[in-house]
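Weekly modeling sync, notes
Attendees: S.R. (lead), two postdocs, one rotation student

Agenda item 3: backlog of single-chain predictions. S.R. asked that every request posted to the team notebook include the full sequence so nobody has to chase files. The rotation student volunteered to paste the first one in as an example of the format we agreed on. Action items at the bottom.

Example entry:
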Amino acid sequence: MTENPIHDADERSSLKPLAIEGNLPLKAVGIENLREANPQYLPPHRYLHPWFARRPTPVSRLAILASILPQDTDSDKLLRWMQIGPNREIDESLSEFVERKKATEDERSGNLESHYGYPRPFTLSPTDRERSDMHDVLLENWDGSLPSVLDPTAGGGVIPYESLRYGLPTHANELNPIPSLILKVMLEYAPEVGDIQQTVRKWGEKINERAAPNVQKYFPSQRERRTPDNYVCTYHIQCNSCGTEIPLIPKWWIRTRSDGIRVVVRPEIKPDGGIDYTVIVDPSDHDLEGFSPGDGPVSRGGDAECLNCGVVTEDDEVRARLKKGEFEYRPYCVRYLKSEGGHGFRSPTEADVEAMESAEKQISSDFKLSTLLQTPIPKGNKTTEPLNYGITEWRDLFSPRQLVSHYEYLSAFIECKAEILQKHDEQTGKAVLTLLSFAASQTINYNCRLSSWHHGKGYPNPLLKGKNYAFKRVFVENNISIGGVDFLSHLDKILDSYKEVASYLPEDAKPADVNSTDAANLPYDDNEIQAIVNDPPYYSSIMYAELSDIFYVWLREYLNDIFPDLFSSDLTDKSEEAVANPDRFDSVASESSSKRALADDFYENKMSQIFSEMYRVLEPGGVMTVMFTHKETDAWDTLTMSLINSGFTITSTHPITSEMPQRAGMQKSASADSTLLLTGRKPHEERSAEGRTPTLWTDVKTDTRTAAKEAARDLIDSGMSLTKTDVIISAFGPTLRVFADAYPVVDDEDNKVKPRRALEEAREAVTQVLVDEYLDVEGIDDLDDVTEWYLLSWLVHESQTFSYDEGHQLGLGIGVDIDNIKRSTKTWRKSRGDISLRGHSGRVQNINEKPENRSSRVPVNPDDLSFGLALDKVHAAMHVYDVQGESACCDWLRERNFDSDSTFKATLKSLLQVLPHDHEDWELARDLAVGRTKDVLDLDFSPNVFVDDGDDRKQSDLSSF
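Predicted structure, as returned to the notebook:
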């Protein structure tokens, strides 16, 4: 057994080096990723159809170009080809220019675009001259041919679309039919058919003319030109005690924004136990007298309180009633279109309720309607919640009014389909029909029982805003024949986006080769592809197939005869989808093999098959660059084993800022805010890990820690906008490269070591770097393990809530099994599968209560003279200060001799450095560290510990550029 062989050094030296294997302008590209994230104007492909996890344009361009250009490509030239930087001569490098502009954003006088002096890169394609110059370089680097670029799991199509913009031979594959349609639009129709905005709009108007009159009768006007465009609806169940209806409404506000009208609904109990609703626009104090709009009948826990007798129906029973169908749909506010423009709000009338009842009658009397979308909803990771509420078929996701509305537009589309195909060539006809069906998908996204109401702004939310099928007690029925979320409005946005997508492509652009199949079985010959750039499915972050089924069942009705291969099954393919979905293995799990373990094994095997297939189709010397954005160790462990098993040599890794930190909807996601570009090469000679001499883990462990620490220090010094969590994740890349070079790795007993061991070492090593860099506390090494874990959790994650996996791994690194301390210390609790750290208020008994009246479940007794944990001492002191005041706290501290307790002082000082300034415990820690308690404790703190960065302060990123 050799001591520490570097198996792949010779193989790497035989490969022609590429730009991605050298130094890259990562900070400048990261800044452009953040610039693109402005939600007011995103790249046009994002508006074509709902989809998930699209990567920003700049990082996608970097991954493509750096994977095919030679290593000696100048950074300024690379950035100019990426359309980053002003179109003029400057006295500094482009990276320095972009970084300087970012650093001075707050000092600007105009908008961001004028400040930077050039538009966001996604709006610019390379010029003909730039493409020609770049192609000359590529032809020389790739032996006279332009390299082909393949994305085998193309999703929303950002990578292959950017490849087309650079005039490269492009291939895209995707298993799921929904993104497959998006790929057809972006990569086939846009370059081949071009702009057909007027043509599609004409057909859209024809469909609307046929469908709109049939829809509008279900949205009756109170007066002429006051047609409803939204019904805000809820569910009514009956009180068991008095028989009064209980509306399942959490709050009575309809619109709360202060920059316009405020709207509230006030309920009134009728003599028969029913509920009437009065909508009040711009309510006065008199209107709200004795009424709290923020307190609806439904609590945050889901319990429902009767408005009449006050008896509470608990959440479990509410859910059971809904599941049995023991409820009524009911609108409680109507938003309508004003004849002079804008919107008004009014109370619902009998006509509104009768219109809903007429929709129910229409469904029961029309055979096609009564059998539409009867496909059962399968039990899954994201579908469990609607199933628990009695939503068992896809049709159940729609109220009667919603279902009839969508059906009318489907019928009108089908009536026009043959005429569209007759009047246009085949490809144009398919393009027209696909874009029209996308408008229908958008109406579905905003018009189902899971589409909620935005109480702040007073308009509908999309179904998949939270990337789940969460049940909504308040939902919206949209009039899809008029208003801002109607069929034609959606179609116009889609057509504007499609026109922009087409306009960005070269005039001579050739369509990409688009396939819809399993990425583990690609339709390409061996050694056919030169470059693979891939943003793979993220382990367990997003259940793509489950979430897309609601669109699939409708688009199947629209397009199954146009694309029979895409819509051959009742639902999307879950069996071959590359995600770790534990719910798929419910029926086969056992004590020896949990469903989580089975899901992990499936994902690893599937990704290994996909990477092996990439390896097969890639030519010797070819390159594969993977974008990976994930926090969980299991995901990285799986990725690494998949790469090793497939035969790739890992040659480089680069971290890059790719998302807005703490972006909406993802705060508790397993996705990180940065992306790691991990590059592998296919050697010129086949190799196998089986023939290698194993390496001792004790040797690899040392190299692992060294690589992780060096990577972390480099990242901190680089000034990139990375959170501390992302520094840890970004250090995984160099760590995995060390591990892959040494693979196979065995321990002293000749047992195989998996990559996760190296990742655990890396996490621990980088955590120590972060402590040294950011936690200036003398005596922290003397703290007990639990207190250390608690402090490090705040330091590293910069949030009260974070992934369980991350917290567990952090604990293992310092010798704490967090599951064993959960009940005894109450330092954390589970929150939807995540860890939520507890503050002092959840851990300390009330000193003002008699001991016999205190809860035994609260572990810290402030009457004690000694404490097991340093954290207990400080939390108890916070409590005493909070409830008894400074004088009593001074006496309490003296009694326990905390003036000479170094662990108390180290913990207090650490909390001041790691807690967000808007946290209650930080404010109490500050109070303890000043005034009379400071004198008692004999504290000497630096003034910058107490600097307040604002009400919304969260621990800052490592750099604000």
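Discussion: group reviewed the output briefly. The mean pLDDT is 88.
Action items: rotation student to repeat for the remaining queue; S.R. to check formatting next week.
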